[in-house]
Amino acid sequence: MIQFCEFFLIIQAVFFSALGMSVLGDSRTPSLNAVVRELMNKVQLLNAEAWRNNVEPFPLKPVQSHGQDCSDIRDSFDFDSKTPSGIYIIQPDGTDYPFEVFCEMDYMGGGWTVIQRRIDGNIDFNRAWSEYMDGFGDLSGEHWLGLRKIFHIVNQKNTNFRLQVALESCDDTSAYASYDNFWMEDDSRFFKIHLGRYAGSAGDAFRGYRQEDNQNSMPFSTFDIDNDGCSPFCTINGSAVESCSTKNNKTGWWFNQCGMANLNGGLLEPDSSINSHIQWDTWTQNGMAVTIKSVSMKIRRAYNPYFK
Ligand SMILES: [Ca+2]
Is pTM beyond 0.85 here? Predict the structure, then answer.
């Protein structure tokens, strides 16, 4: 009997305990369900809102370019309105992608696309082939635009470009070298450079004084892609040079047995042992090459309706 009573009590305890749990469960479940339902509704509302925002008010649009190059941008503006210097997006004729460049709109009538600038030594020009090809640096400061982009600009149909090299010395004198009919061959020819007639006050360092210094028609070289005409080596100031790039602080240029120009050379630092620097050795003072503080290389369409 006791056993039965004990058994009954156990059953009763289990039953009520189950019932209690069930009662408790019943009292919790509806509120949890409500919270879950509410959260699910919120998630759905947020999803719908995100979908509307992405798809309806902001449809994907291709990047708009301001023009084909800085000359095109300058010419497409009103004659009377002043186009400011700065960073613009260009898409040269015949290319399928737009990119940014710095346009100089104040220098000599404006319309210049800057392809290289050295002003403060903030950017290291010791770079490999791939970086000289794609470009590096800060467009509003020191930079190399990149061989591929320069090629796309000067390779446009029915255009002809002038290259301007603007130099400034450490004692704040300035000089320039200008070349008409500047163009380059493509990457399969290592961006071989072609320069027309020279004009200017800094001398024609691209061609130099001797045939072996002439960099016109030379392919581009870096420390990892060697087209510099020193094969296996050339003798410069009595020493054997195998790579002009390595000799010049691993910078890239259209070297020819090194030659008299390298505007990508390292900046001259007073205490530096590096003897490489921005080089334009036909600009001389008292028979010595002038020490160069800053330089920029810029290109403009040769046809200019406003400045004939
Ligand atoms: Ca070599």
Answer: no
Can you tell me the distance from the alpha carbon of 286 to that of 284, in angstroms, rounded to the nearest whole number? Answer: 7
Instruction: State both tokens at 121.
Output: 């030594």
Residues 119 and 32 in one domain: no
On whether both 2 and 98 belong to a single domain, the answer is: no
Pairing of strands 193-194, 161-169: unpaired
Task: Provide the mean pLDDT of the chain.
Answer: 84
C-alpha 229 – ligand 1 centre gap (Å): 6
The answer to whether the beta carbons of residues 180 and 197 sit under 8 Å apart is: yes
Distance CA 214, CA 229 (A): 11
9 domain-assigned = yes
- Per-residue pLDDT of 63-73, as tens digits, reads 789 999 999 99
- Whether 194 maps to a domain, the answer reads yes
CA nearest neighbour of 262 among 243, 246, 281: 281
Task: Place 61 in a pLDDT band, splitting at 50, 70 and 90.
Answer: low
Spacing, Cα 258 to ligand 1 middle (Å): 9
Ligand 1 centroid to Cα of residue 233, in Å, is 6
Per-residue model confidence (pLDDT) at position 79: 59
In a domain, 306, yes or no: no
CA 216 to ligand 1 centroid distance, Å: 17
**Ligand 1 centre distance from Cα of residue 257 (Å):** 8
